[in-house]
Amino acid sequence: MLSHLRTLKSYTAIAFLAALLTACSEDAAPIQSATPTAEPVASVAVETEQQLIERALGIHERVITLDTHADINTSNFTPDNNYTSDLDTQVNLPKMEQGGLDVAWFIVYTGQSTLDTEGYAAAYANAIDKFDAIHRLAEEIAPDQIEIAYTSDDVRRIVAADKKVAMIGIENAYPVGLDMANIKDFQERGGRYMSLAHNGHSQFSDSNTGEGDNIWLHNGLSEMGREAIAEMNKWGIMVDVSHPSKEAIMEMLDLTRAPLIASHSSARALSEHSRNLDDEQLLRIKENGGVVQTVAFSSYLNAEKNARFSETRNSLIAEIAESLGVEVLSFPEINALSQTERTIYRSRMDEINSLAAPRLEAEVNAIAPPVDVADFVNHIDYMVELIGLEHVGISSDFDGGGGINGWNDASETSNVTIELVRRGYTEEQIALLWSGNLLRVLDDVQRIAAEIQAE
């Protein structure tokens, strides 16, 4: 049984009964509530909270759990400092083991910079450094604990061997530069999905960030972007529509010959954010046969709730900092510090956060609750209802800004399954949400790639 649990709020006996009846019905839709019957409630065994948790943990151990987005820092992939230890990261091997997370997609992320020779060279070097780091962990540092998967069959084989699985996603095609051969090269290095932009317009695609200033570079995809879609289809790289602009995404849907994914996005209808997908986009992804990996990023899940929590928490931090004579700095101000000054500042902030910790529940959470696992599963419910369960998956964006109350690192992964069981999802449905849908798309993309190469 998994060692780490954070029990979510209890339901009434009637709510438990509804969850149990729904879960036991093979054909029941996961979001429907139970309908009262003439049979007395007393004649039906009511599942207790502990029984629900135990049932959920059994499901969690049996299904393959897969998170499509975990950012990395290559300084944590060295022989002396790596994921075999429980580092101060949201994802590492001990946390994956503790929370029952089987598969982590480690991300080759590159921030957007200048569209010139110097920018492309630096971006390429950054990407190769991250590819090499992931391979180093799996092939040199801990090959007995984790292995890179390139296909869905690899995933199942590695999990059956009782090892963790690493897969590789590419966030921002900017490192490809102007050399389209790099797309095939990145695929050979293990890249199995790639987004054409991040926060900023790339040589391939406009970014969702254009919504902020209404400044666009391509009004969707560039000609190179259109070529990139064809190359990704040819070499078996899933097209990732998280981060590009809506117009670019709609073009991708028109052009791709294979299903695509949103590696870490949620539903815009529930929380207004340019990183989320609106109903038109979601329905097009359903038509395309793709999958949307719901992301556990607080401001994407419930922007208003997250803002209230952040404001209340920041007030507490500011109060404590002032009492210690410390000025709380913004991110740009922190980045402007020297390395020594930054180390000192972070040490003081660690002290302030430690002092704030015992006061959070009464002075912050009770007044302005944080975004939590229930908010996360609300997005899953919404998208399942709109586009069908087979088009919805799960992602965290850990170590890249993701994390919510109840699933703030990989050690708490089982809490997602507990909430899904609480909502009435069956084991078969949970297996599809956690990994089956994403692996089905990967299979389709690789099959179509083989057909294109044979043409």
Describe this protein's structure.
- The protein is of the alpha/beta class and 455 residues long.
- It contains 17 helices and 9 strands.
- Strands 1, 2, 3, 4, 5 and 6 form a 6-stranded parallel β-sheet that branches. The chain has a 3-stranded parallel β-sheet with strand order 7-8-9.
- α9 packs parallel to α10 (279-288).
- Mean pLDDT is 91; it is low at 1-42.
Features:
single chain, 455 residues, alpha/beta, TIM Barrel, 2 domains, 6-stranded parallel β-sheet, 3-stranded parallel β-sheet, disordered N terminus
Structural class: alpha/beta
> CATH topology of the largest domain, what is it called?
TIM Barrel
What separation lies between the terminal Cα atoms? 50 Å
When the domains are counted, the total is 2
Our Rg estimate from Cα atoms comes to 22 Å
Low-confidence stretches: 1-42
* Biggest pleated-sheet summary: 6 strands, parallel
Q: What is the averaged pLDDT score? A: 91
